[in-house]
């Protein structure tokens, strides 16, 4: 009898532990991190510095400049594409349209698509592409800039591989990832933009992120 | 002769009878259609979508039966050599480039049979001979 009671107690504890765990779903924080010790009010406090997206400056389809500061206070999704891409880009943007349609009327949310072929994809070319895709307003920006800057930020900061390669379809190799960045400019998720299931997961995760309480911005 | 033997003979004859009922034409159609579905997945689906829905005003849908019917002779050339310039599909204008696809005549006839009988379209089998003839006339 005693054993039975103990087993029941353990079961209830485990069950309630699981339940409270699923209520407070949080997304992981990706990238390098390092602890720092600082003095607050005379006490030693250890804090963690997470990898964040460094300053950048590009131009959007309207010809306006977009920098890391423009995105302050926004959750955003990043991808890399080019307008003449015959392989995965149409699928990626067919899927990204779903993300756009879900969040276009909520504030503090942006999608930024960087062209990896800035020579061809000038501002007017990007504007035309956006128009044809049916994108208006300022939720989804198509960004143009210096090729080195685009490739560096893709690989070093958003951790998405891109490469020019004459033998690949359309002349470029690139990965179709959608990268989710939080208001503190930290990577919180990476999704295969060609897979509708992962894109549905991204939509769920954006909602989770939107519900996260605003923390103090470290740094 | 056991009863079991007789009944299995009867079943065999019934199967023969049923398959014979499918005309050669419909068998040929099924062969073209199922191979065409694979060609579609590999060469067309990325842009035109799993349901032939296209992408906004960038990539046309493949569900405009009237367009397909009117241009049936030119379609093999469009697939083989790509397509440039303005076209009007389902009342909307499209002007982006479709890249060339290096497909064999039989693959073109398969994929055209698939497209022509999917997404709400109802065309007949587009066979290899007619594709070959149309390809010879490409501009």
Keywords summarizing the entry:
heterodimer; A: 219 residues; alpha+beta; Glutaredoxin; five-stranded mixed sheet; two-stranded antiparallel ribbon; 34% helix; globular; B: 139 residues; two-stranded antiparallel sheet; 7 helices; 55% helix
Q: Strands, helices and their partners?
A:
The complex is a heterodimer of chains A (219) and B (139).
Chain A: H1 2-23, E1 33-40, E2 43-50, E3 57-59, E4 65-67, E5 75-81, H2 89-103, E6 109-115, H3 123-133, E7 140-143, H4 147-157, E8 162-164, E9 172-174, E10 177-181, E11 187-192, H5 196-211
Parallel strand pairs in A: 5-6, 6-7
Antiparallel strand pairs in A: 1-2, 3-4, 5-10, 8-9, 10-11
Helix pairs in contact in A: 2-5
Chain B: H1 3-21, H2 24-43, H3 45-48, H4 65-70, H5 75-81, E1 87-89, E2 92-94, H6 105-116, H7 128-136
Antiparallel strand pairs in B: 1-2
Helix pairs in contact in B: 2-6, 5-6, 6-7
Report a brief summary of the structure:
Chain A is an alpha+beta fold and 219 residues long.
Describe it:
The complex is a heterodimer of chains A (219) and B (139). Chain A is α+β, with helices and mostly antiparallel strands and 219 residues long. Chain A has helices at 2-23, 89-103, 123-133, 147-157, 196-211, and strands at residues 33-40, 43-50, 57-59, 65-67, 75-81, 109-115, 140-143, 162-164, 172-174, 177-181, 187-192. Chain A has one domain (56-211): Glutaredoxin (3-Layer(aba) Sandwich), CATH 3.40.30. Chain A has a five-stranded mixed beta sheet. Chain A has a two-stranded antiparallel ribbon with strand order 1-2. The model of chain A has no long low-confidence stretch (mean pLDDT 87). Chain B is mostly helical and 139 residues long. Chain B has a single domain (24-136), classed as Orthogonal Bundle (Cytochrome Bc1 Complex, Chain D, domain 2). Helices cover 55% and strands 4% of the residues of chain B. Chain B is built from seven helices and two strands. In chain B, strands 1-2 form a two-stranded antiparallel ribbon. The longest helix of chain B is centred in the first third of the chain and has 20 residues, at 24-43.
